Amino acid sequence: MIPRVDAVALIDLAHPDHETARASTRVGATDIGFLTVYNTPIAPQTVADVIATYRRFFHLPAMQKAAVDMAKTGSNRGWGAPGSEQVDPDANPDYKQVFDCGLELDLADPLRALDLPAYAPNIWPDTPEDFAQTLQDYYTQSTRFALDLLCAIADAVGMDGSYFRDKFTRPMALLRGNYYPERPAWATEKDFGIATHTDYGCLTLLATDGSPGLEVRKRGGGWIPVAAPVGEFVINFGEMLDIWTEGLIKATPHRVLGPTSERISVPLFFNPNHDANVAPEGSPGIRAVDHLQARFNETYVHLQSKTG
Ligand SMILES: O=C(O)CCC(=O)C(=O)O
Ligand SMILES: [Fe+2]
Predict the structure, then answer these.
(1) C-alpha dihedral over 190, 302, 171, 245, to 10 degrees?
(2) Domains in the chain, please, with CATH?
(3) How far, in Å, is the centroid of ligand 1 from the Cα of 267?
(4) Is 265 within 8 Å of 178 (Cβ atoms)?
(5) Atom of ligand 1 nearest to the CA of 263
(6) Across the strands, what pairs with 34?
(7) CA 56/CA 131 separation, integer angstroms
(8) Ligand nearest to C-alpha 98
Protein backbone atom coordinates (compact mmCIF):
# COMPACT_ATOMS: atom_id res chain seq x y z
CA MET A 1 0.00 0.00 0.00
CA ILE A 2 1.22 3.49 -0.84
CA PRO A 3 1.75 5.67 2.25
CA ARG A 4 -0.28 8.88 2.54
CA VAL A 5 1.95 11.93 2.44
CA ASP A 6 1.68 15.49 3.67
CA ALA A 7 4.40 17.07 1.58
CA VAL A 8 5.10 17.17 -2.11
CA ALA A 9 8.18 15.18 -3.11
CA LEU A 10 11.17 17.01 -4.62
CA ILE A 11 12.88 14.96 -7.31
CA ASP A 12 16.42 15.47 -8.65
CA LEU A 13 16.21 14.90 -12.41
CA ALA A 14 19.99 14.58 -12.58
CA HIS A 15 19.42 11.13 -11.04
CA PRO A 16 15.97 10.07 -12.23
CA ASP A 17 16.68 6.36 -11.99
CA HIS A 18 17.61 6.30 -8.34
CA GLU A 19 15.16 4.15 -6.47
CA THR A 20 14.28 7.08 -4.17
CA ALA A 21 13.43 9.24 -7.19
CA ARG A 22 11.28 6.49 -8.68
CA ALA A 23 9.53 5.81 -5.35
CA SER A 24 8.87 9.54 -4.79
CA THR A 25 7.57 9.84 -8.34
CA ARG A 26 5.17 6.95 -7.72
CA VAL A 27 3.80 8.57 -4.56
CA GLY A 28 3.62 11.99 -6.25
CA ALA A 29 1.73 10.66 -9.26
CA THR A 30 -0.52 8.03 -7.71
CA ASP A 31 -1.35 9.51 -4.31
CA ILE A 32 -0.82 13.22 -3.85
CA GLY A 33 -1.08 14.17 -7.54
CA PHE A 34 1.77 16.70 -7.29
CA LEU A 35 5.56 16.62 -7.25
CA THR A 36 8.38 19.08 -7.81
CA VAL A 37 11.51 18.57 -9.90
CA TYR A 38 14.90 20.27 -10.24
CA ASN A 39 18.03 19.86 -12.37
CA THR A 40 15.81 19.90 -15.45
CA PRO A 41 16.85 20.49 -19.09
CA ILE A 42 15.35 24.01 -18.90
CA ALA A 43 17.86 26.53 -17.51
CA PRO A 44 16.65 28.59 -14.53
CA GLN A 45 17.64 31.75 -16.46
CA THR A 46 15.27 30.80 -19.28
CA VAL A 47 12.41 30.60 -16.79
CA ALA A 48 13.44 33.91 -15.20
CA ASP A 49 13.40 35.56 -18.65
CA VAL A 50 9.95 34.13 -19.45
CA ILE A 51 8.54 35.39 -16.16
CA ALA A 52 10.10 38.84 -16.69
CA THR A 53 8.56 38.96 -20.18
CA TYR A 54 5.08 38.15 -18.86
CA ARG A 55 5.58 40.70 -16.07
CA ARG A 56 6.30 43.45 -18.61
CA PHE A 57 3.11 42.54 -20.49
CA PHE A 58 0.87 42.35 -17.41
CA HIS A 59 2.16 45.75 -16.20
CA LEU A 60 0.88 47.43 -19.39
CA PRO A 61 -2.24 49.58 -19.02
CA ALA A 62 -5.48 47.58 -19.38
CA MET A 63 -6.30 49.52 -22.58
CA GLN A 64 -3.20 48.14 -24.28
CA LYS A 65 -3.85 44.58 -23.11
CA ALA A 66 -7.45 44.87 -24.32
CA ALA A 67 -6.12 44.99 -27.90
CA VAL A 68 -5.42 41.24 -27.54
CA ASP A 69 -8.42 40.38 -25.34
CA MET A 70 -9.44 36.75 -25.85
CA ALA A 71 -13.06 37.72 -25.19
CA LYS A 72 -13.09 39.05 -28.78
CA THR A 73 -12.25 35.55 -30.05
CA GLY A 74 -14.04 32.21 -30.00
CA SER A 75 -11.03 30.52 -28.48
CA ASN A 76 -8.48 30.94 -25.74
CA ARG A 77 -5.66 32.95 -27.24
CA GLY A 78 -4.48 36.27 -25.91
CA TRP A 79 -5.22 38.20 -22.72
CA GLY A 80 -7.82 37.08 -20.21
CA ALA A 81 -8.89 40.05 -18.08
CA PRO A 82 -9.69 39.71 -14.36
CA GLY A 83 -12.95 37.77 -14.07
CA SER A 84 -12.58 36.06 -17.46
CA GLU A 85 -12.45 32.54 -16.04
CA GLN A 86 -14.61 30.75 -13.49
CA VAL A 87 -13.03 27.42 -12.65
CA ASP A 88 -15.36 26.62 -9.74
CA PRO A 89 -19.11 27.20 -10.26
CA ASP A 90 -19.49 27.75 -6.47
CA ALA A 91 -16.91 30.55 -6.43
CA ASN A 92 -16.82 33.92 -8.17
CA PRO A 93 -14.76 34.22 -11.38
CA ASP A 94 -11.04 34.34 -10.57
CA TYR A 95 -9.42 37.74 -10.13
CA LYS A 96 -6.16 36.67 -11.83
CA GLN A 97 -5.27 37.81 -15.33
CA VAL A 98 -3.87 35.38 -17.90
CA PHE A 99 -2.20 35.29 -21.27
CA ASP A 100 -2.68 32.10 -23.31
CA CYS A 101 -0.87 30.85 -26.40
CA GLY A 102 -0.79 27.51 -28.14
CA LEU A 103 0.73 25.42 -30.91
CA GLU A 104 1.57 27.20 -34.17
CA LEU A 105 0.44 24.77 -36.88
CA ASP A 106 2.60 24.70 -40.02
CA LEU A 107 1.05 26.52 -42.98
CA ALA A 108 0.74 23.20 -44.86
CA ASP A 109 -0.77 21.29 -41.92
CA PRO A 110 -4.07 19.67 -42.96
CA LEU A 111 -5.32 20.18 -39.38
CA ARG A 112 -5.80 23.86 -40.23
CA ALA A 113 -8.78 22.93 -42.38
CA LEU A 114 -10.64 21.60 -39.32
CA ASP A 115 -10.66 25.10 -37.80
CA LEU A 116 -10.60 23.75 -34.24
CA PRO A 117 -10.51 26.42 -31.51
CA ALA A 118 -7.91 24.27 -29.71
CA TYR A 119 -5.50 25.05 -32.58
CA ALA A 120 -6.61 28.67 -33.08
CA PRO A 121 -3.91 31.05 -34.32
CA ASN A 122 -2.04 32.87 -31.58
CA ILE A 123 -2.55 36.57 -31.08
CA TRP A 124 0.38 38.65 -29.90
CA PRO A 125 0.68 42.13 -28.43
CA ASP A 126 3.01 44.73 -30.03
CA THR A 127 4.80 45.20 -26.70
CA PRO A 128 6.92 43.84 -25.15
CA GLU A 129 8.80 43.58 -28.44
CA ASP A 130 10.29 40.13 -27.73
CA PHE A 131 7.08 38.70 -26.25
CA ALA A 132 6.09 36.28 -29.04
CA GLN A 133 9.64 35.04 -29.67
CA THR A 134 10.39 34.44 -25.99
CA LEU A 135 7.16 32.54 -25.42
CA GLN A 136 7.39 30.52 -28.63
CA ASP A 137 10.94 29.43 -27.77
CA TYR A 138 9.79 28.45 -24.29
CA TYR A 139 6.78 26.64 -25.75
CA THR A 140 9.11 24.49 -27.86
CA GLN A 141 11.42 23.67 -24.94
CA SER A 142 8.70 23.06 -22.40
CA THR A 143 6.55 20.81 -24.58
CA ARG A 144 9.60 18.64 -25.34
CA PHE A 145 10.44 18.40 -21.62
CA ALA A 146 6.80 17.73 -20.68
CA LEU A 147 6.61 14.75 -23.06
CA ASP A 148 9.82 13.23 -21.70
CA LEU A 149 8.56 13.73 -18.15
CA LEU A 150 5.17 12.22 -18.89
CA CYS A 151 6.79 9.13 -20.41
CA ALA A 152 9.24 8.79 -17.48
CA ILE A 153 6.47 9.18 -14.91
CA ALA A 154 4.32 6.61 -16.69
CA ASP A 155 7.29 4.21 -16.63
CA ALA A 156 7.82 4.88 -12.91
CA VAL A 157 4.22 3.92 -12.10
CA GLY A 158 4.54 0.67 -14.01
CA MET A 159 3.02 1.65 -17.34
CA ASP A 160 4.77 1.71 -20.72
CA GLY A 161 5.68 5.38 -21.09
CA SER A 162 6.45 5.04 -24.80
CA TYR A 163 2.71 4.55 -25.35
CA PHE A 164 2.25 8.32 -25.03
CA ARG A 165 4.88 9.42 -27.58
CA ASP A 166 2.73 9.43 -30.69
CA LYS A 167 -0.29 10.91 -28.87
CA PHE A 168 1.48 14.29 -28.62
CA THR A 169 2.73 14.97 -32.15
CA ARG A 170 0.40 17.99 -32.47
CA PRO A 171 -0.34 18.68 -28.80
CA MET A 172 -3.20 21.01 -27.91
CA ALA A 173 -0.74 22.23 -25.28
CA LEU A 174 -1.56 25.62 -23.84
CA LEU A 175 1.10 27.90 -22.38
CA ARG A 176 -0.28 30.38 -19.88
CA GLY A 177 1.03 33.25 -17.83
CA ASN A 178 -1.00 33.75 -14.64
CA TYR A 179 -0.78 37.18 -13.05
CA TYR A 180 -2.06 37.51 -9.48
CA PRO A 181 -2.10 41.03 -8.10
CA GLU A 182 -2.04 41.47 -4.36
CA ARG A 183 -5.26 40.01 -2.95
CA PRO A 184 -7.81 42.84 -3.32
CA ALA A 185 -9.33 44.41 -0.21
CA TRP A 186 -12.82 43.67 -1.58
CA ALA A 187 -12.18 39.90 -1.92
CA THR A 188 -14.71 37.72 -0.11
CA GLU A 189 -14.54 34.03 0.75
CA LYS A 190 -15.85 33.36 -2.78
CA ASP A 191 -12.99 35.26 -4.41
CA PHE A 192 -9.73 33.58 -5.34
CA GLY A 193 -6.66 34.18 -7.45
CA ILE A 194 -7.72 30.85 -8.94
CA ALA A 195 -10.49 28.90 -7.22
CA THR A 196 -10.34 25.18 -6.49
CA HIS A 197 -10.08 23.12 -9.68
CA THR A 198 -8.41 20.19 -11.33
CA ASP A 199 -6.48 20.77 -14.55
CA TYR A 200 -8.10 19.37 -17.68
CA GLY A 201 -5.28 17.70 -19.57
CA CYS A 202 -2.51 15.22 -18.88
CA LEU A 203 0.50 16.83 -17.23
CA THR A 204 0.94 20.41 -16.08
CA LEU A 205 4.49 21.79 -15.98
CA LEU A 206 4.32 24.80 -13.70
CA ALA A 207 7.05 27.39 -13.27
CA THR A 208 6.60 30.11 -10.66
CA ASP A 209 8.40 33.27 -9.62
CA GLY A 210 9.22 31.49 -6.37
CA SER A 211 6.58 33.13 -4.22
CA PRO A 212 4.10 31.01 -2.26
CA GLY A 213 0.37 30.84 -2.87
CA LEU A 214 -0.38 27.45 -4.44
CA GLU A 215 -2.26 25.01 -2.20
CA VAL A 216 -2.94 21.37 -2.98
CA ARG A 217 -5.87 19.49 -1.48
CA LYS A 218 -4.92 16.63 0.80
CA ARG A 219 -6.87 13.47 0.24
CA GLY A 220 -7.87 13.32 3.91
CA GLY A 221 -8.86 17.02 3.94
CA GLY A 222 -6.88 20.22 4.41
CA TRP A 223 -4.37 21.91 2.13
CA ILE A 224 -0.65 21.50 1.47
CA PRO A 225 1.23 24.68 0.51
CA VAL A 226 3.59 24.15 -2.42
CA ALA A 227 6.32 26.56 -3.50
CA ALA A 228 9.20 26.14 -5.91
CA PRO A 229 12.05 28.59 -6.55
CA VAL A 230 12.70 29.77 -10.10
CA GLY A 231 14.23 26.85 -11.95
CA GLU A 232 12.29 24.18 -10.08
CA PHE A 233 9.01 23.01 -11.57
CA VAL A 234 5.79 21.88 -9.96
CA ILE A 235 4.29 18.92 -11.82
CA ASN A 236 0.67 17.88 -11.52
CA PHE A 237 -1.75 15.80 -13.49
CA GLY A 238 -5.03 16.57 -15.20
CA GLU A 239 -8.38 14.94 -15.72
CA MET A 240 -7.52 13.30 -19.04
CA LEU A 241 -4.59 11.40 -17.58
CA ASP A 242 -6.68 10.39 -14.56
CA ILE A 243 -9.33 8.98 -16.93
CA TRP A 244 -6.74 7.46 -19.28
CA THR A 245 -4.95 5.62 -16.45
CA GLU A 246 -8.20 4.56 -14.75
CA GLY A 247 -7.41 6.69 -11.72
CA LEU A 248 -3.88 5.38 -11.19
CA ILE A 249 -2.42 8.85 -11.80
CA LYS A 250 -4.39 11.45 -9.85
CA ALA A 251 -5.81 14.81 -10.90
CA THR A 252 -5.78 16.61 -7.55
CA PRO A 253 -7.75 19.80 -6.78
CA HIS A 254 -5.69 22.91 -6.05
CA ARG A 255 -6.14 26.67 -5.67
CA VAL A 256 -4.44 30.00 -5.13
CA LEU A 257 -6.25 32.06 -2.55
CA GLY A 258 -4.36 35.19 -3.41
CA PRO A 259 -0.94 36.41 -2.47
CA THR A 260 0.03 39.29 -0.20
CA SER A 261 2.09 40.68 -3.07
CA GLU A 262 2.09 40.26 -6.85
CA ARG A 263 2.76 36.72 -8.09
CA ILE A 264 3.36 35.21 -11.53
CA SER A 265 3.13 31.57 -12.48
CA VAL A 266 3.56 29.90 -15.85
CA PRO A 267 1.76 26.60 -16.41
CA LEU A 268 2.18 24.57 -19.56
CA PHE A 269 -0.99 22.50 -19.83
CA PHE A 270 0.31 19.55 -21.79
CA ASN A 271 -2.76 18.31 -23.66
CA PRO A 272 -2.53 15.57 -26.32
CA ASN A 273 -3.41 15.58 -30.02
CA HIS A 274 -7.04 16.47 -30.71
CA ASP A 275 -7.95 12.95 -31.78
CA ALA A 276 -6.15 11.06 -28.98
CA ASN A 277 -8.56 8.66 -27.33
CA VAL A 278 -8.18 9.23 -23.60
CA ALA A 279 -10.70 6.59 -22.56
CA PRO A 280 -9.31 3.54 -20.80
CA GLU A 281 -9.04 0.41 -22.88
CA GLY A 282 -12.38 -1.25 -23.50
CA SER A 283 -14.59 1.75 -22.67
CA PRO A 284 -16.36 4.05 -25.14
CA GLY A 285 -13.96 6.52 -26.74
CA ILE A 286 -13.35 10.03 -25.42
CA ARG A 287 -11.61 12.33 -27.88
CA ALA A 288 -9.17 14.66 -26.12
CA VAL A 289 -10.54 17.67 -28.01
CA ASP A 290 -14.08 16.97 -26.81
CA HIS A 291 -13.08 16.79 -23.15
CA LEU A 292 -10.92 19.89 -23.44
CA GLN A 293 -13.44 22.00 -25.33
CA ALA A 294 -16.23 21.03 -22.92
CA ARG A 295 -14.11 22.21 -19.97
CA PHE A 296 -13.13 25.44 -21.79
CA ASN A 297 -16.81 26.11 -22.53
CA GLU A 298 -17.66 25.64 -18.85
CA THR A 299 -14.93 27.82 -17.42
CA TYR A 300 -14.08 30.66 -19.84
CA VAL A 301 -16.71 33.29 -19.19
CA HIS A 302 -16.70 34.50 -22.84
CA LEU A 303 -17.32 30.93 -24.04
CA GLN A 304 -19.96 30.22 -21.32
CA SER A 305 -22.16 32.93 -22.84
CA LYS A 306 -21.71 31.53 -26.37
CA THR A 307 -22.51 27.96 -25.46
CA GLY A 308 -25.15 28.62 -22.80
O1 LIG B 1 -0.44 29.74 -9.90
C2 LIG B 1 -0.32 28.57 -9.52
O3 LIG B 1 0.56 28.22 -8.73
C4 LIG B 1 -1.29 27.50 -9.98
C5 LIG B 1 -2.06 27.90 -11.20
C6 LIG B 1 -3.05 26.87 -11.62
O7 LIG B 1 -3.44 26.00 -10.90
C8 LIG B 1 -3.54 26.88 -13.02
O9 LIG B 1 -3.24 27.85 -13.76
O10 LIG B 1 -4.23 25.92 -13.40
FE1 LIG C 1 -4.34 24.37 -12.06
Answers:
(1) 40
(2) 4-307 (2.60.120.330)
(3) 7
(4) yes
(5) 1
(6) 236
(7) 9
(8) 1
Give the integer Cα–Cα distance in Å for 217 and 221.
7
pLDDT (tens place) for every residue of the chain, 308 residues total? 334 456 788 888 888 778 888 899 999 999 999 999 999 999 999 999 999 999 999 999 999 999 999 999 889 999 999 999 999 999 999 999 999 999 999 999 999 999 999 999 999 999 999 999 999 999 999 999 999 999 999 999 999 999 999 999 999 999 999 999 999 999 999 999 999 999 999 999 999 999 999 999 998 899 999 999 999 999 999 999 999 999 999 999 999 999 889 999 999 999 999 999 999 888 889 999 999 999 999 999 999 866 65
| ipTM over the 0.90 cut-off | yes
**Dihedral over Cα of 1, 8, 38, 138: its sign:** positive
Q: What is the number of the ligand closest to the CA of 267?
A: 1
Among 155, 285, 216, residue whose Cα is nearest residue 32: 216
Q: Which helix (H) or strand (E) holds 298?
A: helix 288-299
Closest CA to 256 of 147, 179, 202: 179
Report the predicted TM-score, pTM, of the whole model to 2 decimal places: 0.96
Residue 265: strand, helix, or coil: strand
Q: Is the CB of 178 under 6 A from ligand 1?
A: yes
Q: Is 80 helix (H, G, I), strand (E, B) or coil?
A: strand
